[in-house]
Write a structure and sequence with these properties.
By secondary structure, this protein is mostly helical. Helix content is 70%, strand content 0%. The chain has a single domain, classed as Ribonuclease III domain (Ribonuclease iii, N-terminal Endonuclease Domain, Chain A), CATH 1.10.1520. This is Mini-ribonuclease 3.
């Protein structure tokens, strides 16, 4: 790395740490799907998308303070594992609207092929959270950011 690149990295390290509202602004909704197309997506497809969006949110959250890659990995894995996702879903449930609860129900019913180490209920709840995140990412990004900010991620 040349000195110019090092200067840029050092300047980036000196910036203020973002709060959770800044983190959600970093996720950009690029969806161009029509509502009819979104309704045609299966709960499994929503969960597939939601898994990626949720993990991206968690990865961004753990970028600050600066750490070694192994520490980032451990922190992120702890938050994206099914058991923690199930806890997050339970913590969000009181805040969910009726149509969001319907997406959660559909996601739960779509959960199949769980890992053997997992209780089926935990796996269903994790899949439900992922389906909700995927759905909100495509339909109501502002609502998604509102709910993600309610999660209790620990540093």
């Amino acid at each position: 790395m040349n000195s110019k690149e090092e200067d840029v990295l050092n300047q980036a390290d000196e910036t203020t740490l973002p709060d959770s509202s800044d983190l959600t602004a970093m996720l950009i909704n690029i969806s161009q799907l029509a509502p009819e197309q979104i309704k045609q997506l299966s709960p499994s497809a929503l969960a597939y998308l939601g898994d990626a969006i949720y993990e991206l949110y968690v990865r961004i959250f753990y970028l600050w303070p600066k750490q070694r890659p192994e520490a980032y990995h451990r922190s992120v894995v702890e938050q994206v594992k099914a058991e923690t996702q199930a806890l997050h879903l339970r913590s969000l449930t009181p805040y969910l609207r009726s149509h969001e609860l319907e997406i959660v129900r559909r996601g739960r019913n779509a959960a199949t092929g769980r890992p053997k180490r997992l209780n089926p209920e935990i796996y269903q709840q994790a899949t439900s959270l992922e389906a909700l995140v995927g759905y909100l990412y495509l339909t109501d990004y502002q609502r998604l950011t509102e709910l993600l900010q309610k999660l209790h991620l620990e540093k």
